[in-house]
Write a structure and sequence with these properties.
Elements: E1 2-5, H1 7-15, H2 19-31, E2 33-37, H3 38-52, H4 60-68, E3 70-72, H5 84-95, E4 100-102, H6 106-111, E5 113-114, E6 117-120, H7 122-128
Parallel strand pairs: 1-2, 1-4, 2-3, 4-6
Antiparallel strand pairs: 5-6
Helix pairs in contact: 1-2, 1-3
C-alpha cells in the first residue's frame, strides 16, 4: 500500500516508543511504500527544532525516511482544511496516489476519506495491515 504519514506521526515515531514507531519501522522494512513531500519533511524538521530542540540531521531514522520515501513534488493547490499544513498532507497523498494517510490530527481524521484516500490513526492502520 502507498501511505502518507502526517508530521505528528513521524515525530511521534522518531521521538517516542509506541504505535507510530512500530508503524514507521514496519513501512521502512518494506511492508508498504512510504510517500512523502518536501512540505512534510520541512514541517517535520521545523517542529523537531522549534518544539523539541532536536537537530533533524542528527536523527538517523529521519534520514532513512528521506532515503526510502517516494518523494512527490507539487505546488500547493488545496484549501480544504483550516490548518494549512493539513492541506499539504492531502496534496501529498493525492499526488503520490496513496491509499492511506496516517495521522493523529483531528481535522484530518474528521474527513475519514478524501478522494478515495482513507484517513486513519496509527492503531487503525496497524490493524488493517496486520501489524498489531
Amino acid at each position: 500500500m502507498r501511505t502518507v504519514l502526517d508530521t505528528n506521526v513521524i515525530i511521534s515515531a522518531l521521538l517516542f516508543d509506541g504505535l507510530p514507531e512500530k508503524l514507521l519501522l514496519g513501512i521502512l522494512a518494506g511492508s508498504d511504500q512510504l510517500v512523502s513531500s518536501s512540505y512534510i519533511i520541512a514541517e517535520t524538521a521545523r517542529i523537531l527544532e522549534s518544539k523539541f530542540s532536536v537537530q533533524p540531521n542528527n536523527i538517523e531514522l529521519l534520514q532513512q525516511i528521506l532515503g526510502e520515501s517516494e518523494m512527490v513534488h507539487f505546488q500547493p493547490f488545496l484549501n480544504i482544511v483550516a490548518d494549512e499544513p493539513d492541506n499539504r498532507i492531502l496534496e501529498t497523498a493525492i499526488k503520490g496516489s496513496a491509499q492511506y494517510i496516517v495521522t493523529g490530527d483531528q481535522l484530518l481524521l474528521e474527513l475519514k476519506k478524501y478522494k478515495g484516500i482513507q484517513i486513519v490513526k496509527a492503531r487503525e492502520y496497524l490493524e488493517i495491515t496486520d501489524g498489531l
